[in-house]
Amino acid sequence: MPAVQSTYPSTHAAAFVGMVANGEWVTNVISRIVDPASATAINFGDAVLQGGSEQLVVSANGGTGAFRGLAVRNTTLPPGNNDQYLATNSIAVLTKGVIWVNTPVAVNPGQAVYLTAAGALTNVASGNTAIPNAIWDSATSGAGLAKLRLN
Fold first, then answer.
1. Number of H helices, E strands in the chain
2. For the whole model, what pTM was predicted?
């Protein structure tokens, strides 16, 4: 079997997409299944929507349904998954708390969070869907990692 990793950095990154940002006691993570009918993989930190039944979720990238939460990083997925949740995988979904996510634009703490049709998380309201009770919890100067708070 080939090595999964053959080089190691001298320091670790401060954060990774999909990583729960802190250990607040109000954090809530639920377990769901990626809808078997879904052809779109779910990346760590991606928004997920309600799937075809109560225990199923789908990617917000092209998906439809009510917002359910954000995909939590899972280091125990098989290497073949390429750090993505695939159809039928069990998925951890953050419904309350702070998580690191990718944003395509500069954001500032306290700004509202919106979801684009392509599944991107942004602070741009025009043409996008507001995520109830969500705010940006850190700043970026452009595209990159930012903390998102779900209350």
1. 0, 11
2. 0.90
